From TrEMBL, chains A, B:
Entry-linked Gene3D superfamilies: CBS-domain, MgtE N-terminal domain-like, SLC41 divalent cation transporters, integral membrane domain
Function: Acts as a magnesium transporter.
Protein species of origin: Faecalibacter macacae
Molecular functions (GO terms): magnesium ion transmembrane transporter activity; metal ion binding
Residue stretches making up the CBS domain: 141-204, 205-261
Protein name (record): Magnesium transporter MgtE
Protein's gene: mgtE
Localization per record: Cell membrane; Membrane
Length: 451, 451
């Protein structure tokens, strides 16, 4: 069962691979799951990885390749000819995975590989799947499924299923179609276990099923699978014909990727990067937001310099700029995170005005709480005058309310315009809060202190 | 198939429910999936919700209750007696869901409900499951599974499976055990479709399977299911006996919750809240971090006031504090987000020193890029002296490197100590960067400008 992968095991294995000791390496990898072998690849050079892939059976190699990071996979496949990719890799994969791999190849190699696929049925299916947008149901689905005709008896269905099952790794659902291939429903395996052989499929299938259309966006597919607790969902085309099936494991990736993307955007990272990516790629993903933040900082400086003469008298005000800004920044991030998340999991309902009203109240409540503490600390610890303390506190309440409303409004506004609301979070909201916050602060100071 | 739920439909339905028109409401809800009915509940009062739950068949009602938010479910169940909960709700559920519901009840009601469960076998299983920690495999698993003895023939296995399948909603895997109930492997449904009736189970089952232990943490379970692309994973106890099974839909919730929690923590929200939660609950989740941020702002003010006499000469330095701080804050969030995410999805490997070295380089690169732009802008636009511009730029590079290293080190350090690294992100890292950043800035100013 589960093989214990110790540090020692990895060390010995790496040694043997470097020695290109085919026999021992093969033996050592014998009992391992492809996903575990893929993990070991992190410790190996591309050359050694290619050696292992070459060494193992095609089916295992294909599974390993699927588990690797895209960059690593590309490097290995680069060492393979189109014919090898077609016969040793693509041939062993489900169509949806095969399409993902082919999509990663250069345009020229793509054509070559497809031309080399021996199973003409599979080639046809792959060409069909390549037509669909990666981010839709068509791009996620595989062609591997079991379907039976509604007019068959259960015993005929079983025979056909056995035939169809040969190409499949695992069987979860049996789809029922009519003569035109139109999806009617499913025959659960349970029904199949408990029904007598002569019953007609028509009489026992379940017609209340969930499906998605070929052009449904991948996030919608994920929502359907999550909402109805499905293991797989059938995909139909414009004529309601059954054209493929999407399994929950494909959707797991979609869910995790979306959550990671939102998180990264909120943290000011513009491309999907990994901690193991190169310094140049990481810089490219991080520098743009830092530049925007920098412009925000310079913008704040420019606002302050506009009040220069007044500030000579009230230098103390400048010391509380960080307080104003960090508070505004934190409130903005909190508000936007809650909204972005609510939009992502579909829990945001009701009018925008009601929501903004609520954020106003929330900001007022939080603002008053913080302002009270700040009032006491500035006056008694920093020894600021009553007017200066009041300026700081009123400004705090104002910027908190402002940040809460901006943080709520922008994501909802963008979402309504069809823009991913996640792009608005993080540095973007923080930066605009920085500038507006400083401006509000000094305007209030001007009003109270009269400079 | 999919019923179109229009705004009009919802309005008419709400009307009929308010009129307590049982017959029409029942008809209208007939073709709907419980998950869809649960969504409609957002528009109804608790009284109306209870009316619908009462009206529908127990099985549908139980499914609806499972789909509701915890708060709504509690309110409805509050209107039910222990006997009703046991017979009309718990009785219809899989054991894992039943346990989740029972865990939400008050201690007194918990005991009453369990006493009322008529199916003594189910009651026994629920009591067993209640013993396990909610965040472990034991807390996630259900007892519903199909198991066959290795010594049976396939035909005997089929007969037994049919019997066991009656209690199950759906069949995905058939588990093979020995006389002591020790898990040996699985019999795939495909094998079962393609093997002759007299073959012994022992000869055809697959022994290379993944499993988890009863005390495996839920996040680990999710990782196993994701890594090996499983639909369900069996759970074994200390004696390696098969005690339950965890399905992928339970794990979907764990994955989404973890991603949301990390995101919320990074955004400075300390409790799992929803945009629809009350103002008090939202304040409780948001105020603590704002207070920490406030202390950071006051801390920065206190550091600056330590340089007061020097600042009278160089007031201009204060104007660039927001620039220093927001840059440091953004870098810190970026670095920590990448590390936290890498720790969550298991892609962080290799020594900490190497990683810190990389962040140092990355910080240096980003820092020099930004400093160059700032040098030009401050000198030519703001007209600062050469020395002041140099001060700002050198401080920028220093705080960026510092923020990158802190942002990387703290999550890895916490993770090594068994603390969830996500708590360190967001306001926490921002706040410490705020204070340290200002300190570095003024120390560099002191060295260069010599005040």
């Amino acid at each position: 069962m589960n093989v214990e992968i110790t540090k020692e095991f990895i060390e010995i294995l790496s040694e043997r691979i470097k020695e290109q000791n085919a026999k021992v390496v093969k033996e050592m990898l014998e009992g391992l799951h492809p996903a575990d072998i893929a993990e070991l690849f992190d410790e190996l050079s591309t050359k050694d990885q290619a050696f292992v892939i070459d060494l193992l059976e095609n089916e295992t190699s294909a599974d390993i390749l699927l588990e690797l990071e895209e960059d690593d996979r590309k490097k290995i496949l680069h060492t393979f000819s189109a014919k090898e990719i077609a016969n040793e890799v693509i041939n062993e994969m489900d169509t949806d995975d095969a399409v993902d791999i082919i999509n990663e190849l250069s345009d020229r190699k793509k054509v070559e590989v497809i031309a080399q696929i021996e199973d003409k049925e599979q080639a046809k299916e792959i060409v069909e799947l390549l037509r669909y947008d990666e981010d839709t149901a068509g791009g996620l689905m595989g062609k591997e499924l079991i379907k039976v005709n509604k007019d068959w008896s259960v015993i005929t269905a079983v025979k056909q299923m056995r035939k169809q099952a040969e190409d499949l790794e695992e069987v979860f659902s049996i789809y029922v179609v009519d003569d035109d291939d139109i999806l009617l429903g499913t025959l659960s395996l349970k029904k199949f276990l408990t029904t007598s052989a002569n019953t007609k499929v028509e009489d026992v299938y379940n017609s209340k099923i969930q499906y998605v259309n070929i052009d449904t966006p991948d996030m919608e597919v994920a929502k359907v699978i999550e909402k109805y607790d499905l293991y797989e969902v059938p995909v139909i085309d414009e004529l309601k014909r059954l054209v493929g099936v999407i399994t929950v494991d494909d959707v797991l990736d979609v869910i995790r990727e979306e959550a990671e993307e939102n998180y990264q955007l909120a943290a000011g990272i513009t491309q999907n990067v990994d901690s193991d990516d190169g310094i140049l790629k990481l810089t490219k993903a991080r520098l743009p937001w830092l530049m925007i933040g920098m412009l925000g900082g310079l913008g704040a400086a420019s606002i302050m310099s506009g009040f220069e003469s007044a500030l000579e008298k009230y230098t103390i005000l400048l010391m509380f700029v960080p307080l104003i800004q960090s508070t505004a920044g934190n409130v903005g991030i909190q508000s936007s995170a809650i909204v972005v998340q609510g939009l992502a999991n579909g829990s945001i309902k009701g009018g925008i005005l009601k929501r903004l009203g609520k954020e106003f109240l929330l900001g007022l409540l939080n603002g008053l709480g913080i302002a009270l503490v700040v009032l006491l600390i500035t006056h008694f610890v920093f020894g600021t005058t009553y007017y200066v303390s009041m300026t700081i506190c009123i400004a705090l309440v104002a910027v908190i309310i402002n940040a809460a409303i901006i943080g709520t409004f922008i994501p909802i506004f963008l979402n309504g315009r069809g823009v991913d609301p996640a792009v608005s979070t993080g540095p973007f909201i923080t930066t605009s809060n920085d500038i507006i916050g400083v401006f509000i602060y000094f305007m209030i100071a001007k009003a109270i202190l009269g400079f």
